[in-house]
Amino acid sequence: MSSQLHAMRRRRGKRTAAAHAPAEHHRDQRIAVVGLGRFGTSLAEELMRRGWEVLGIDSDERLVQQHRDVLTHVVLADATDEEVLRQLGVHEFPRAVVAIGTQIEASILTTSNLLELGVRNLWAKAISRQHGKILERLGAHHVILPEHEMGERVAHLVTGRMLNFIEFDDDYALVKTIAPESTTGMPLSESGVRREHGVTVVGVKRPGQQFTHATAETVVHPGDVIVVTGRTAAVEAFAELT
After folding, report:
1. Is residue 14 pLDDT above 60, yes or no?
2. CATH 3.40.50.720 location in the chain
3. Is the alpha carbon torsion for 192, 197, 199, 205 positive or negative?
4. Where in the numbering of this chain does the RCK C-terminal domain appear (predicted)?
5. What is the pTM of this model?
6. 43, 59, 89, 101: which sits with the fewest CB atoms below 10 Å from its CB?
7. Assigned CATH class of 158-240
């Protein structure tokens, strides 16, 4: 185990990266990312960019070497061994992500180990709905299906008139779209968007300007980009009015 601990490397220049990130002294900005494949690497690097302290763990020595000067710490370790995780002190991190992809057994065992160790906020990547259900039953606090979620999102963008689409678990969505003609030229309180379409306009962006928070007095103009929320079917139907 001493060799595994010895493999932990401190990222060069991490103080510089943290200095450019927003100060969040009230939060414990430490996170463990288990699995340094494409998803885990992308996540870990973005967290580093935001000033977080990232412990990367992988059983592939090549990946560990590849990230030793990128992440705060990198460890060559078998995360399916609960005792290894305990010695690494992963349970002391307030957050952890199991980013293991195709190795479903390793994903399940690692998730179980982290939960047993008492990690307070655990995200786990799933490669299928069945895999996700198993992780949920184990007690994972958040289950991520990146391929499925991205495919569903792109399908909405390709087949509809939306500029962006985010759906939440409870059949609720957030959509960015061009304002339909029926909503323009009058305050939102008079256009009847919520009454007629069952959606709420929360933001408006004029060409060449930044988004602003929408109020009942906000007047939407032709060509404005708006952000609306509501039930998925309702926002989909509303976007088709564009």
Report:
1. no
2. 30-144
3. negative
4. 160-242
5. 0.68
6. 89
7. alpha beta
3-state helix, strand, coil in the chain (%, to 5): 40, 25, 35
Measuring CA to CA, how many Å separate 156 from each of 82, 144, 229? 41, 19, 15
Whether the per-residue pLDDT at 92 is higher than 50: the answer is yes
Q: Are 59 and 77 in contact (CB under 8 A)?
A: yes
CA-nearest of 43, 93, 84 to 67 is 43
Long-range contacts of 20-29 (CB under 8 A, 24+ apart): 20/51, 21/49, 21/50, 21/51, 21/52, 22/50, 22/51, 24/51, 28/94, 29/53
Q: What is the tens place of the pLDDT at every residue in 158-182? A: 777 788 988 886 789 999 999 999 9
Using the predicted structure, report yes or no on whether residue 51 has a pLDDT greater than 50.
yes
Helices 129-138 and 104-116, interaxial angle, to 10°?
20
